[in-house]
């Protein structure tokens, strides 16, 4: 049973929206504690200063309101390291929500330490992955921190009960013009996600008006766009020769990719908490980054290193999806991944056309591609084709022995 004793101050992950405003008031009343608010700018594209005014109106003192621009740290220290591994969950999902949570958890516990808070609080529900990600991250960084998850404690289980609570406690309910989106959305510099509403039926096609970042491929420009991406140690550092910061790189790829209909997916994924969930995602910049990074690796990585990375990647992706960014096993894998990127330098030329991302060129001063060996013309002795016979026979030895004992594969068997 949850006890409300011993909590004097709580750091709340605060968006300024209705749900977290209700949580703020609920914490003040239920725990009788001071609330510190933390609002992170991860590139969601929304004005965050209104969150400060809302927190002030609800009695939070100015010194207890933290609004931070974390866009560069987010891309540099979380998104880019993840893309060095070509990370993708269940073959499709580029982990846009998952990779943001460890940074938020880190800042929550750091602010708690700086302000002398006893606990942190978040607005993730008891049915989703985010509660796991926030809390695993917090406990990994501050093992004795207390975590308050109101959705697992209160009895405000419906939208009607939330609205009634807001009205009873004087929490402003913004009535915006137009129709409210039926989707639950989450956005940052890497992606925007959509869940709920009509998407809860996996047979229902997402409505065209749902998408916000990308044009429909049918209406994308009829002329292709070309981009030259420059890599250093596995990270993009320039677009068309112009050097950009990590956050600037991702923002520009989002802009260009979105204009050409790149990055839409509609998937059913397996949540860590045990259920299947249907979600739609727009990840234009990330989609370009994944294709381009595999292209530059194709000429700069040794075959066995590349294959080993591909074998490790699904485990690495699951660690991020399930909330284990701060685990020792993820950190161990990251060391190996980063080591593999030392010579992943060069340029990749990308062609964008009506939702497609096509690699049309790659070059590197560290390229392992040897034209003398790969050529179909006379290789001037760089490769002795006669050597292939012994190579094949050595690799066929076990297959030939097996066939002599059991008969050729597909040759039928006894009764």
Low-confidence stretches: none
Across the major sheet, the strand order is: 3-2-1-4-5
What is the CATH-assigned architecture of one domain?
Alpha-Beta Complex
What structural class do you assign from the helix and strand content? alpha/beta
Under CATH, the topology of one domain is which?
Argininosuccinate synthetase, chain A, domain 2
Describe the structure.
This protein has 415 residues and is an alpha/beta fold. Among the domains are: 136 residues, Rossmann fold (3-Layer(aba) Sandwich); 139 residues, Argininosuccinate synthetase, chain A, domain 2 (Alpha-Beta Complex), CATH 3.90.1260. 39% of the residues lie in helices and 19% in strands. It contains 12 helices and 14 strands. The protein has a 5-stranded parallel β-sheet, with helices on both faces. A hairpin with a 2-residue loop joins strand 8 and strand 9. The mean pLDDT is 93.
Q: What would a concise description of this structure say?
A:
By secondary structure, the protein is α/β, with parallel strands linked by helices. The chain is built from twelve helices and 14 strands. The chain has helices spanning 18-30, 49-57, 71-84, 101-115, 130-141, 159-168, 246-259, 284-300, 303-322, 328-340, 371-374, 387-406, and strands at 9-13, 34-41, 65-69, 119-121, 146-148, 184-187, 192-195, 225-232, 235-239, 242-243, 264-270, 276-282, 346-353, 356-363.
SSE topology sketch:
Elements (H helix, E strand, L loop, with lengths): L8 E5 L4 H13 L3 E8 L7 H9 L7 E5 L1 H14 L16 H15 L3 E3 L8 H12 L4 E3 L10 H10 L15 E4 L4 E4 L29 E8 L2 E5 L2 E2 L2 H14 L4 E7 L5 E7 L1 H17 L2 H20 L5 H13 L5 E8 L2 E8 L7 H4 L12 H20 L9
Parallel strand pairs: 1-2, 1-4, 2-3, 4-5
Antiparallel strand pairs: 6-7, 7-12, 8-9, 8-13, 9-10, 11-12, 13-14
Helix pairs in contact: 3-7, 4-5, 7-8, 9-10
